[in-house]
Write a structure and sequence with these properties.
This protein is α+β, with helices and mostly antiparallel strands. The protein is 63% helix and 13% strand. It contains seven helices and five strands; from the N terminus they run ααββααβαβαβα. Strands 1-2-5-3-4 form a five-stranded mixed sheet. Strand 3, helix 5 and strand 4 form a beta-alpha-beta unit. Helix 2 runs antiparallel to helix 7.
Length: 280
C-alpha cells in the first residue's frame, strides 16, 4: 500500500509540475519502470490475498469436516461405551447367577456322593453278613461279591437243582433259608433273582422248551421258595431269566458250562433318596 501512495504522490507531483518541469528521458523511463513495479506489486498483492482467502476458506471447510467426523466418532464412542457398560453389567449378573448355580450343583453333588457312600457302606455290611451266614456253602459253589454298589450271591445249579430240573433240592433249600434270614433283617434291600444257563440245547425236558424257559423257571422257583416258605415279602423280589446270554466263562469246557449254569441273587439298597436328588 505504501508503494501505491508513493506512486500517486509522484503522479500528482508530476501533473502539478508538468507545466514548469521538463523530465529528462532517463528520469521518465525510471518513473515508468517504477510505475510498472508498483503495478506488479499491486497485482501480486491482490493474487496473494485471493490465494489467502481460498486457503482460509479451505481451512474452514476442512475444520468443519473434521469437527463433523469428531462428532461422529464421539457418538460411536458413546455408543460403544454404553454397550460396554451394559455388557459389563449383564456379565456381572450372569457370572453371579452362574456362580450361584455352580454352588448349588456342588452341594447337590456332595449330597449324591453322600448317598452313594452310604449305599456302598450298607452293601459292604450286607456282604459281610451274607458271607458269614453262607460260609458253609462256599465249597458247594456259592460266592458272595460286590460289584457296582450291589451284592451278588451266586449259586451254581448243582447247589440248587438236580440236572435239568426246576425243583430245588434240600441242600439248596438250606442255603436259601440262611440267605432269607439275612434278607428279612434288611427290609431296605431290593432282591432280583436271575436265572442263567449254558449254551447247550435242552432236550426231552417236557414243558421246558429251551434255555430261556429253564432260566426263567429256575428263577421263579427260587422266588417262590423265598416268598412262600421263608416269608420274604414278594414286593421286594423280581424274577428274571437271562438264558445263555450272560456267561461267566466260555461254554467250551465242562467246567466253564458248570459255572455258567447258576442262579444269581442281586441285592441292592433302595436308592429313593438318590432318585429324589436326581429329580431335583
Amino acid at each position: 500500500m505504501n508503494r501505491i501512495f508513493l506512486f500517486l504522490a509522484i503522479a500528482l507531483m508530476g501533473s502539478a509540475f508538468t507545466s514548469c518541469v521538463v523530465l529528462s528521458p532517463k528520469k521518465y523511463k525510471a518513473l515508468l519502470a517504477r510505475q510498472d513495479s508498483l503495478n506488479n506489486g499491486w497485482s501480486e498483492s491482490q493474487l496473494s490475498g485471493s490465494n489467502l482467502e481460498k486457503a482460509v476458506t479451505k481451512l474452514r471447510r476442512d475444520t468443519a469436516d473434521l469437527n463433523g467426523r469428531l462428532n461422529e466418532l464421539q457418538g460411536k464412542y458413546d455408543q460403544v461405551s454404553g454397550n460396554y457398560k451394559k455388557l459389563k453389567t449383564n456379565s456381572s449378573t450372569e457370572i453371579s447367577k452362574l456362580s450361584d448355580d455352580l454352588k448349588k450343583r456342588e452341594q447337590r453333588l456332595k449330597e449324591v456322593e453322600d448317598v452313594l457312600r452310604k449305599r456302598d457302606e450298607a452293601s459292604n455290611k450286607l456282604k459281610e453278613k451274607l458271607q458269614g451266614a453262607l460260609l458253609g456253602f462256599t465249597k458247594s459253589g456259592l460266592t458272595v461279591e460286590m460289584k457296582n454298589g450291589k451284592v451278588y450271591v451266586s449259586l451254581t445249579d448243582k447247589l440248587l437243582f438236580p440236572s435239568g430240573s426246576i425243583v430245588i433240592d434240600e441242600k439248596g433249600k438250606q442255603a436259601l433259608s440262611q440267605l432269607a434270614k439275612v434278607l428279612k433283617e434288611q427290609p431296605e434291600i431290593i432282591i432280583a433273582v436271575e436265572g442263567h444257563t449254558d449254551s447247550q440245547k435242552i432236550n426231552n425236558l417236557g414243558q421246558i422248551k429251551d434255555n430261556w424257559d429253564l432260566s426263567v423257571l429256575r428263577s421263579t422257583s427260587v422266588v417262590r421258595f423265598l416268598t412262600e416258605n421263608e416269608k420274604v415279602p414278594g414286593i421286594r423280589l423280581t424274577a428274571t431269566g437271562k438264558g445263555e446270554f450272560q456267561p461267566l466263562e466260555a461254554n467250551t469246557t465242562p467246567e466253564g458250562r458248570s459255572k455258567n449254569r447258576r442262579i444269581e441273587i442281586v441285592l441292592s439298597p433302595k436308592l429313593d433318596e438318590l432318585y429324589n436328588l436326581i429329580k431335583q
